[in-house]
Amino acid sequence: MSAHCQLTGRSPGFGHRVSHSHRRTKRRFDPNIQHKRYWLASEGRHVRLTLSAKGVKTLDAIGVEAAVARIRARGGKV
């Protein structure tokens, strides 16, 4: 499972881990990904979404129906 938000599109960032002596090694900044289950009333079923923490807050603000519509508009599977 990749660290990717279905709603906001957040994905890992890449950079360097810098030691005290300033040696650089590659590292990965993963978003805070959560697996949440929501009731989708229009289809009469639950949907399981992979969301970042910001995606959860966005979903709470706009509602499940609008969020699922956005995900489907981006070509995502719900």
Automatic annotation (TrEMBL):
Residues 1-26 are annotated as: Disordered. GO terms for cellular component: ribosome. Keywords: Ribonucleoprotein, Ribosomal protein. Residues 17-26 have a biased composition (Basic residues). It holds the Pfam family Ribosomal_L28. NCBIfam families: L28 (TIGR00009). Belongs to the bacterial ribosomal protein bL28 family. This is Large ribosomal subunit protein bL28. It comes from Streptomyces similanensis.
